[in-house]
Amino acid sequence: MAILNILRYPDARLHKVAKPVTEFGTERLTTLVADMAETMYDAPGVGLAASQVDVHEQLIIIDTSESHDDLRVFINPQIVWASAEKQVYDEGCLSVPGVYDGVERPAQVKVRAFDAAGAQFELEADGLLAVCIQHEMDHLLGKVFVDYLSPLKRNRIKAKMLKESRGLEREAALRAAGRRY
Ligand code: K1U
Ligand code: ZN
To answer: What pLDDT score was predicted for residue 113?
Structure first.
């Protein structure tokens, strides 16, 4: 297994639209799911979309349990029903570390998807699971939760993220230079 690199906002690759998965039960898919799970638990997070690790295929994983033993895999997911009732949840994102803000979404959803072996299933969700499903499915459409915020907030977040990225790049360059001397 491997820990994958998570793309950081405002990386343009986070806005790519994911393509459907066409081959199930393959070693490639099994490895991708295992690597994504290891990456999500290590971060730590409660969800991850393949788009966030630069794989633009319709695959998301979620585990909202505290014990990290309830991994759910959704391939080619579709929302087949959403409640009229809405809820606002303070969302976070591993691609926008350290930023949390309220997003309003349907409080309950029914999702239809395939598992890694290609079996279709349906699941009705509410609470954090419903939030996560919708948040991760947005990633597959190239949408990040900050896209729901005002342009003012989004631009502030973009500037903060770019500043942090420049700092991280400088640290990496210094570490690499230290290794050379
Ligand atoms: O980057 C992602 O898409 C994952 C994201 C999922 C999410 C969380 C909360 C609301 C909406 C979507 C995260 O996991 S952010 C990290 C986080 O919320 C968390 C981390 C550790 C423990 C519990 C939560
Ligand atoms: Zn996210």
So the answer is: 98
